[in-house]
Design a protein that fits this description.
This protein is mainly α and 247 residues long. It folds into 3 domains: 3-61; 65-183, Up-down Bundle (Four Helix Bundle (Hemerythrin (Met), subunit A)); 185-234, Orthogonal Bundle (Arc Repressor Mutant, subunit A). 68% of the residues lie in helices and 2% in strands. It has helices at residues 3-20, 27-33, 41-53, 70-83, 91-102, 106-127, 134-148, 161-208, 214-221, 225-234, and strands spanning 24-25, 57-58. It has a two-stranded parallel sheet with strand order 1-2. α5 (91-102) packs across α6. The longest helix has 48 residues, at 161-208. The protein is elongated and about 80 Å long. The chain starts with a helix and ends in a 13-residue tail after the last helix.
Length: 247
């Protein structure tokens, strides 16, 4: 494994460890994680900056509410009002219901889902501000819990259930953010390609003093015909410099 890959993997492990610990990690834990990589003080400072930007507290938890946008705040206020009707459980009741859920009792599984709904909110707040609305993160987390309670039978002890469900929530939210990021990057590339084709079509049309055909543009620029046609389609046929009459 090269140094860059080892660094990236360690950084992600540190991030996941911090999130599983209430978005908090000690300075010593971070330094220990990277101890074998011989990083400079400046590089370590960059790591701490990265963690701060991802709402990770160093030595003490951050307040996730500070990272919520107005839309998320409005949604959360209404959603929390709805959750007030959910009955609370004592630790003993929670253990008993978890054991029943592990045995496949559907009523217990439903009660366990209700119990974890407020906890989904707390986890979702840790992932807010990364391109996905809080409402969507909560939806992903709730779905993960709903599926997770049906899989508790694989555990050896009821005490493992909370950790398993928390991991499922986090994985679901991280997957949602990753998909959003990937889609956003793809959208950016598409826009860049459309703009590139527009600029090249405009320049060629100015040289020829007329509109250009897709064939002429492909031959002049080396851009594949399929890319040109797709760019025109995405633009809503608004690249006026391209003429399809003679195509």
């Amino acid at each position: 494994m090269d140094k860059e890959t080892a660094f990236a993997n360690t950084l992600q492990e540190v991030l996941k460890q911090a999130k599983s610990n209430g978005s908090c990690i000690s300075k010593e834990e971070v330094e220990e994680a990277f101890s074998s990589q011989n990083l400079t003080d400046a590089q370590m400072d960059l790591i701490f900056d990265y963690l701060h930007k991802h709402k990770i507290g160093i030595g003490e938890p951050v307040d996730p509410d500070d990272y919520l946008g107005n839309e998320d705040r409005d949604y959360l206020e209404e959603y929390l009002k709805e959750l007030e009707a959910i009955p609370t459980l004592s630790e003993g009741e929670k253990e008993a219901i978890t054991i029943s859920a592990m045995s496949g009792d559907s009523d217990a599984q439903k009660k366990l889902i209700e119990f974890y709904i407020p906890k989904v909110v707390e986890v979702a707040k840790l992932y807010a501000g990364q391109g996905v609305f809080l409402e969507d993160l909560i939806g992903e987390g709730n779905l993960a819990v709903a599926l997770g309670v049906t899989q508790l039978g694989c555990l050896e002890h009821q005490s493992e259930a909370e950790g398993m469900l928390a991991k499922l929530m986090m994985d679901a939210m991280e997957d949602s953010i990753a998909e959003h990021t990937e889609a956003a990057e793809l959208d950016t590339k598409i826009v860049e390609k459309v703009n590139e084709i527009f600029e090249k079509a405009k320049a060629l049309a100015e040289d020829l003093k007329r509109k250009v055909t897709p064939e002429e543009l492909a031959e002049e620029t080396g851009i594949a015909m399929e890319e040109i046609l797709e760019a025109v389609r995405i633009s809503g046929n608004n690249i006026e410099e391209i003429d399809f009459i003679d195509s």
